[in-house]
Amino acid sequence: MFKIKRRLCLTAAILCFGMFCADSVLSQEALNLGDQRELFIDDYLIGAMENVCLQVHEPNRENLVAVLDKPWEGNGCIYTTVLYDEEAKLYRLYMSTWKVGNPTAQITMLTSPDGINWTRPNLGLWDYEGVKDNNIVVGRLEWPGGKSDSPENFSPCLDTNPNATPDAKYKATGSGMRCNEGVWAYKSPDAVHWSPMHNGPVYASGHFDSQNVSFWSEKEQKYILYYRVKIPCGDGTENFVRCVFRATSDDYINWKNEGQIQFPEEEGPNFHAQFYVNQIRPYYRAKQLYIGFPARYCDNGLTESTKQLPSWEERQARMSQEVRFATAVTDTVFITSRDGINFRQGNDVFLRPGLRTKDNWAYGDNYLAWNLVETDSTEEDSPRELSLYASESYFTGNDTSIRRYSLRIDGFCSIHAKRQPGTVVTKPLTFSGKELTLNYRTSAAGLVYVEICDASGNVIPGFEKENCDVLYGDSLDRIVSWKGSKDVSSLAGKTITLKFYMQEADVYSLKFNQ
Predict the structure, then answer these.
(1) In terms of C-beta density within 10 A (0-12 exposed, 13-18 middle, 19 or more buried), how is residue 74 classed?
(2) Which of 28, 58, 146, 201 makes a 20 to 30 Å CA pair with 10?
(3) Are 107 and 119 in contact (CB under 8 A)?
(4) 48-57 in b/e burial notation, b at 16+ Cβ within 10 A?
(5) Which tens digit of pLDDT belongs to each residue from 179-194?
(6) What is the pLDDT of residues 60-77, one digit of tens each?
(7) Taking a C-beta distance cutoff of 8 angstroms, is the pair 47, 425 a contact?
(8) Do 364 and 326 form a contact (C-beta atoms < 8 A)?
């Protein structure tokens, strides 16, 4: 019986998954899509593919957001969060700022009207070396027993729980340099003024020396916390793997440990490529999907290749602190889940270090901010796009930089066909609505046709490939038509499969509109 290959084949090459076997696909229980958007980011929708693959798409490198060179900033700025305030029409970017070798950190904030051009607001909230004219939004954390600590790991979120009180419209988890003591819970009415929700850490089942992220899940109707834990390799040595665990809560104070998130064999973190941050959250256009962008920490030790990486002299200087500060390198991968526990990892990198000649290929480079946001494009007459923000020059020189990257909306991954024609058949599905829309693109010579079959695999009259009006071009929301008719409402609630005929084309997502 046909079984789709479990590892996502996310390369530039076309890989054949075998011939379509109608009996095996049609024997599966139908997926109920309703009118929600579905993305081609894994094999959830796919029953069979021939001469087509799933392909990850890297984001485009855009403008520098900020060079963090103020006295309270420095070369250790990392763990970034970006939020958009719909009421204020304002983007906010939070980050942990500190200098390597200086144990004091603080949380600072940048603001932007468009997500592209950013400034430091003068908040006047926290003293830094006798001056309050700065953009520090959270200073030292107060701990039980009169102790205080620097807020290295502070990750705010907009609380979308309909029962959230006005004074806690925003919430955050935070831990300090003594990260093994647990995470605190914070609240804010305005995303600027923060106060503890409890008189001590609210959760301590882990090792939290990373960015630990939280949010209200509409799908699960509870708060979710994804956090970092170090687990032994089990090889009899002191080696460990940095990986991701999950906890849940009804009130943001009392948390239940749900253990490590899971991946199929050969996916997920391992000793060679450990997950340093996770950056998991629901995708705003398809909230049933969780997406994440873990930074991978990779250390091959001191090799001849290490000496050929940018800024060798600076790396040698960092070795005086720890060898790994010079030898470890980091990039970012793409993971997805539909239940928040079982994840898939794309089998290609999402954000790689790239061909830069200095302050690059460093430990802490290429960490994406938690949360992507939608912004206008900087190109004239172009649709809105996704903006993502990543660290650069961490641990190198005297400061850190934050750079914006752009990505097509829904454009993380696609079903992809090259010059040789290919086909994709979905699993059986039901829907509600009256129009089928696609987010897709082709080359000038490329094309897409869509055919609709019934529960027995027979082409439904009127929805044959021959009747489908050819799709070519580039659109975020193209309505499919058959001899000029866009109406598919007669098939709503019935079990169908979709068959895509593709050449030099990508299809990113689909949706049945009401």
Answers:
(1) buried
(2) 28
(3) no
(4) bbbbbbbbbb
(5) 567 888 999 999 999 9
(6) 999 999 999 999 999 888
(7) yes
(8) no
